[in-house]
Amino acid sequence: MNQSVPGGSEEFNRRVRDNQTQRLSNLKPAYDFIVCGAGASGSVIARRLAENADCSVLLIEAGGSDEDEAVLNPALWPTNLGSRRDWGFHAEPNPHLDGRALPMSMGKGLGGGSSINVMVWARGHRADWDYFAEQSGDAGWSYEAALGIYRRIENWQGAPDPHYRGSSGPVWVQPAQNPSPIADALLSAAGSLGIPRYDSPNGRMMETAGGVAYADMLVRDGRRNSLYRAYVHPVADRPNLTILTDTLVRRVLLDGATATGVEVERGGEILSIMAGSEVVLSTGAINTPKLLMLSGIGDRSQLDRHGIPLARHLPGVGRGLQDHVSFGCTWEYRQPIAPHTSGSEATLYWKSRPELEAPDLLFCQVEFPVPSERTAARGVPDHGWTMFAGLAQPYSRGEVRLRSADPAAAPLVDPNMLSDPRDLETARACVRLCREIGNNAAFAPHVQREAIPGVGAAIDDQFLRDAAVTYWHQCGTARMGMDDLSVVDASLAVHGIDRLRVADGSILPRVTTGNTQAPCAIVGERAAEILRRRHGL
């Protein structure tokens, strides 16, 4: 690794390599805490626990290193989709999408999704966090509480704003630098339609009905600064932190109703590693319910079907799957305009109906064509841009189920997108607004024509079913709450199981308004705060 990579000098990076080599050559049979998954939430938790020198932490990741140009170069993020850094899940064929089976990419490697995503930092709306507080019965999940954590963890590089932004935290957040002229055009076009413009999408804009702004991004010195880079890499030279990559967690080990450790597969060998204090699952909204079920925690009928002994009947495990669904509209450039940075520098949230108090539409501008496999048949321009426009608060719910009791088998993923007819209605409003913006005079100097859906094309249900793709914002499959279908309580402890917590997007009672990376960082911070308090760290 060279010195330009975020995370330290060559000397520091050498110390990290030497330290982790030593840790792995002396892998211990037990650690105080085992954190499964080095994605957005798991990276935060591992860092916060390892800050206490007396606490031994094992961070387990199924994928490998993030030291790759495809990860660190912001412009190359699309090349990670379908690569070895992607779990490569596929949804079940969806009758509401004419039988289409969508690819469901999910980050596999240090940083998880934060190492392969588009680097957008989106905090979620006030209404999201206040809903979480209501569902959990804990004001620690409220918007005001989350805002305080955001201020603490951010190292904001834009105009100072002490009410909304922090300046000394580990997460380097910057506004889009030297935005593309089409990002400028988006802001102008939205403004001409009466959509207010804000200096940032992460301040007052997310307390209102919505607006438009340049995106906030996790890019530092022209390089991706994932949450692994922000949180874990700076402390990876500590002797109390062991980072175990290329290691699959097969199940949580239980002694009755108490988690005692994990069973893992590494280099073809199956090992058991014990946890003296707690096990934390941060493996994402697809793998976390799978792991719980493989461990005997889930719906009794599902576990019986696969011959897995029941440890705790929790029928909500795997249910409630949500994801933002997008319907891309594409325009052809008059002259090619190269994408800037990550190729996504402007974002917009708005309402499909004026009576709504919070936005239910999510728009991310993508500075290159992004068709679905079906809409591509309408003709994809060699050079163009896409409005990646979707539902910020979908009504449809899906689920994750076991395919078999084999830990190596991918689970069945059924997002069930557009199953609720209200989502189709909102999608029509979404695409209408998308076309109003994209065909606005502000784009005239740059755009030659609407390519998808195409000039004069109808916005019918067939187009919506053909165009629908995922935002890769899966969540809700081990949700926090107090009802019979909740999986964890407000402290993220699994109902009825001691010393086992879940901390990732699966615990969110509903998908947040916007990209889910930043909310997952808050989940990690809350989990770490709870663990530190519970164990006196």
Automatic annotation (TrEMBL):
GO terms for molecular function: flavin adenine dinucleotide binding; oxidoreductase activity, acting on CH-OH group of donors. Transmembrane segments: none annotated. It holds the Pfam family GMC_oxred_N. FAD binds at N117, V118, M119, V120, V249, W472, H473, G505. Substrate binds at Y471. Belongs to the GMC oxidoreductase family. This is GMC family oxidoreductase. It comes from Azospirillum brasilense.
